[in-house]
Design a protein that fits this description.
Blueprint lengths: L1 H10 L1 E6 L2 E6 L9 E2 H14 L1 H12 L11 E2 L39 H10 L5 H19 L35 H17 L4 H6 L4 E2 L1 H20 L3 H22 E2 L4 E2 L2 E2 L4 E2 L18 H11 L26 E2 L2 E2 L8 H13 L3 H18 L2 E4 L6 E5 L14
Antiparallel strand pairs: 1-2, 3-4, 5-8, 6-7, 8-9, 10-11, 12-13
Bound molecules: alpha-D-glucopyranose.
């Protein structure tokens, strides 16, 4: 499987010559996603760390090259302007108000994605790319400081997204209610989630104006990854002898965890829920976000236990092929993400990146048995259906884009 993973990442590799250098990265899928995405590239880099760390460093270099002066790492880089279209979301998510005029194609979006870069850098450094640390650390320092200072309007340590497309879980039903959409109406969900993006574009992506509205969110998946990655950043900083950065990252991580526990933990339901707007109204749907804090090493044991009870319940998140992106018993669960023929992703089928996070969570909380089961079932999915974007949680059938990059994460899930 490792050989097949490597072959796929190679087949999806783009080499672009620019500013006298050759940049290499893998597109998530040649047909459906022909650009560079932030968290996809981090996942690709993790997989490259298993067999060619230097190729993994190139993957991240191509992404880091586009970091904004304020520290933001964009969620998509459009290396090929000829692949940018007006009828897609490309212009809508780009910073330039005039981007739709001829000759004004955007180069990046104005959004970011779950902050996985520190984990990706750490994996490469531990795999032997020690020199990459000095190059990557200043980029990480600026990125995580940007998130802490620009994306935390209430200064509680939890970072905010400005559209659900920043969570990486695009049409997750977690946000249906917040955007005022009914969960069986695909066109309404699509239109209302994009309406927020239209407002952002009209606000020129000015964060002050965006945060003055009430549709930003402190997403549980994003913040679980934030808390975990701040720890990775602290370890990297210590390794490089930057005690001050290490202390900052440790303290931020602890503050964010404290707030997550105080604000997003629902002790009645035994799950975490994302918080919308300055009133921090909790989302209600039972989605995979609710479980993601299992990734956090310092999560109190009694809370991890309660999450585990939901995760391993066959009526909720542990069918034949765990882990579905929405609990099977939630009214919004959809087995193949199609509502009335329209494809809206993250509404039921399982994805290898969330399996990979939860696999780590299970290992960290001493659940080796469940961790191996998850790894075995994930391997079975790939053996039967190839490296795919999603898989049906009951049927195991591949759903969505084929030859999909981050499905190769399965090779990093130990079934021993
Ligand atoms: C979809 C996913 C997002 C991913 C992108 C590229 O938009 O929701 O998480 O990064 O595709 O694969």
């Amino acid at each position: 499987m490792r050989e097949a993973a490597r072959a796929l990442l190679e087949a999806n590799t783009e080499s672009v010559t620019r500013d006298g250098r050759v940049w290499r990265y893998s597109v998530p899928s040649r047909r459906s996603y022909p650009h560079q995405w932030l968290w996809d590239s981090c996942f690709h880099a993790v997989v490259w760390s298993l067999f060619d760390p230097s190729r993994g460093c190139d993957e991240l270099r191509s992404l880091f090259h586009w970091q904004w002066p304020n520290g933001l790492i964009p969620h998509v880089v459009f290396w090929h302007p000829e692949r940018v279209y007006l009828r897609k979301w490309h212009h809508l998510e780009s910073p330039d108000v005039w981007s739709f005029l001829p000759g004004h194609k955007p180069r990046t979006t104005a959004l970011t994605q779950p902050p996985v870069p520190a984990t990706a850098v750490e994996r490469l450094v531990l795999a032997g790319a020690e020199d990459f640390l000095a190059e990557a650390l200043p980029v990480l320092d600026r990125y995580y400081h940007y998130l802490a200072s620009e994306r935390d309007p209430d200064q509680d340590g939890l970072i905010s997204t400005i559209t659900q497309f920043e969570t990486g879980l695009d049409f997750s039903p977690a946000y249906d209610r917040a955007i005022g959409a009914r969960s069986r109406f695909a066109l309404e969900i699509a239109a209302k989630s994009r309406r927020i993006e239209i407002k952002n574009k009209l606000a020129g992506y000015d964060l002050k104006r965006i945060f003055a509205r009430e549709d930003h969110a402190e997403d549980v998946l994003v913040n679980a990854i934030w808390i975990d990655n701040l720890k990775a950043l602290a370890r990297l900083a210590r390794r490089a002898g930057h005690a001050e950065l290490a202390a900052w990252a440790e303290a931020k991580s602890a503050q964010a965890l404290q707030s997550l526990l105080e604000r997003a933990w629902d002790s009645g339901r035994g799950l975490f829920f994302s918080l919308v707007g300055s009133a921090e109204i909790r989302t209600e749907a039972k989605t995979i976000q609710c479980l993601l804090p299992l990734l956090i090493e310092d999560l109190p044991g009694e809370i991890a236990e309660r999450l585990l009870a939901h995760l391993t319940d066959s009526r909720e998140f542990w069918p034949a092929y765990p882990v579905p992106s929405v609990g099977l018993d939630d009214p919004s669960y959809d087995s193949d993400s199609h509502i009335h023929g329209i494809r809206l992703i993250w509404r039921g089928p399982c994805s290898m990146n969330t399996n990979w996070f939860l696999h780590q969570g299970l290992v960290r909380h001493g659940e080796a048995g469940y961790a191996s089961q998850l790894a075995e079932r994930s391997q079975e999915l790939v053996e039967r259906g190839g490296f795919n974007e999603f898989y049906g949680a009951r049927s195991g059938r591949p759903v969505g884009a084929k030859r999909f990059g981050w499905a190769t994460l399965v090779t990093d899930m130990d079934s021993a």
